[in-house]
Each structure stands twice: as C-alpha cells, then as structure tokens.
Amino acid sequence: KNQVEQSPQSLIILEGKNCTLQCNYTVSPFSNLRWYKQDTGRGPVSLTIMTFSENTKSNGRYTATLDADTKQSSLHITASQLSDSASYICVVSEDRGSTLGRLYFGRGTQLTVWP
Amino acid sequence: AAGVIQSPRHLIKEKRETATLKCYPISRHDTVYWYQQGPGQDPQFLISFYEKMQSDKGSIPDRFSAQQFSDYHSELNMSSLELGDSALYFCASSLVSRRTNYGYTFGSGTRLTVV
C-alpha cells in the first residue's frame, strides 16, 4: 500500500529558530516528491520538488533533502518567521509512465512559530 | 503569471441541492486533478482528466460527475448534496509532457458548506 508518513505531527518553535520536518514514503514506482505549505482552508502551495536523482534542493529559507534509497525526505526551515506557521505537507507522486500518477499526501506537520 | 483559478471561493448549499465547482488550469497545462479535503482530513483524490478525457478515478461518489472542456477548464458537478460533502475542494493542473520537472500547481480551493 502506498503511504506517506510525516513527523512530527505538530511542532512549536520560537521565531528565528530552525527546524526540520521528516517524511517517509512507500510509494512505488516513485516519480517525485514535493513539499507544500498549506494555510488553513487554502490549497497547498509548492515549496520544492525533488526527483529521483536529486538529493538536495533549496528555495530561500527552505531546504529539502531526498534519500531515494531509504525513501526519506526532510524539509529544513531556517530562521523561522511568524508567517511560517502553517501545515507542511509531503506529497509523493507515483510514476505511471506516459501520464502523471496519483498524488499521495502525508498528514502534514502543523508548525507554529511563536514570537 | 496566473495560477490555477477556482471558482467560487466559497459556496453554501442546502442538503439535496446541486453544486458546480470550476477549475481553470494554468495556460497550456493539459491535465486537471480534483481533490476533496474534509475538516482535519487528508486530501482524497476524486478524479483526473488528461486532454479532455478521464484519466483516473478515485473515491468520487456516484452523485458527483466531472468533465474537462475544450479550453481545458474542468467542472465538478455535485448533486443530492449531503452534509458530509462539506469540504475544501481543490484542483491541480499539470503539463504531462514535462512530468519530471513541472507539474502540479494547486488552486486555492472552493470551500463548500452544506447546511
């Protein structure tokens, strides 16, 4: 069964601190992995996309890593800001050949940044 | 550049009524996906279309139907609405020919409330 599991479920940090979110998946065949930021009641907004051959990718204060062998990914947020408070969702896409496969969503890590 | 546009943003309907949600993909994207996210729930895949043909079907109730039109926009029609249909419905679009480097961009969603 294709699954995506994230940890921790929730996280509270102080403004300016760094944090790391984890994502483990069993989706196969694997196409790519994305980290999204989702504010309450809104659609997910893409932060990074990782394909099989990519190990690290950065987008501003966000750095994602991918270990395709162990099927693990992490999202590191540096110098957190109050606006980073949101749900961070790991989404893995399966490979279906000529068409894009389904997305499998983690349950998200609810990040709260306190002043 | 314009992203994925969904309309309406919010919709309130009574039980047994009908609702139509619209999704306008990014220009030149040829694939549309629909997801349903209940309060505190994981997004659930409903249905997808590629080049105006249904490409995949998930947990979409028989009361729902969808199609993709010649201009690639998609509509999700929901009949005999039930209280449990209250959720955030968001769509994503992608360009299949670049599936490894581009892909899902999500709309902000339509918040459907059934009363």
Structure description:
The complex is a heterodimer of chains A (115) and B (115). In chain A, 0% of the residues lie in helices and 63% in strands. With 115 residues, chain A is mostly beta strands. In chain A, the strands form two sheets. In chain A, strands 2, 4, 5, 9, 10 and 11 form a six-stranded mixed β-sheet that branches. A five-stranded antiparallel β-sheet of chain A has the order 1-3-8-7-6, with no helix packed on it. In chain A, a hairpin with a 6-residue loop joins strand 4 (30-38) and strand 5 (45-51). The mean pLDDT of chain A is 89. Chain B is mostly beta strands and 115 residues long. Chain B is built from no helices and eleven strands. Chain B has strands spanning 5-7, 10-13, 19-24, 31-37, 44-50, 53-57, 64-68, 74-78, 87-94, 105-106, 110-114. In chain B, strands 2, 4, 5, 6, 9, 10 and 11 form a seven-stranded mixed β-sheet that branches. A four-stranded antiparallel β-sheet of chain B has the order 1-3-8-7, with no helix packed on it. Chain B is globular. The mean pLDDT of chain B is 88. Chains A and B meet through strand 4, strand 5 and strand 10 of A and strand 4, strand 5, strand 9 and strand 10 of B.
Order of helices and strands of chain B: EEEEEEEEEEE
Q: What shape does the CA trace of chain A take?
A: globular
In one word, what is the shape of chain B?
A: globular
What is the CA-atom radius of gyration of chain B, in angstroms?
Answer: 14 Å
Number of helix segments of chain A?
0
In DSSP terms (H or I, runs of 4 or more residues), the helix count of chain B works out at: 0
Which structural class do the helices and strands of chain B define? mainly beta
Radius of gyration of chain A: 14 Å
Strand content of chain B: over 45%
Quote the distance from N terminus to C terminus of chain A.
41 Å
Major β-sheet profile of chain A:
6 strands, mixed
Runs of chain A in which pLDDT lies below 50 for 5 or more consecutive residues are none
Which whole number gives the mean pLDDT of chain B? 88
What fraction strand of chain A?
A: over 45%
Q: Overall mean pLDDT score of chain A?
A: 89
Instruction: Give me the count of strands of chain A.
Output: 11
Structural class of chain A: mainly beta
The greatest inter-chain interface is formed by: A-B, 21 and 29 residues
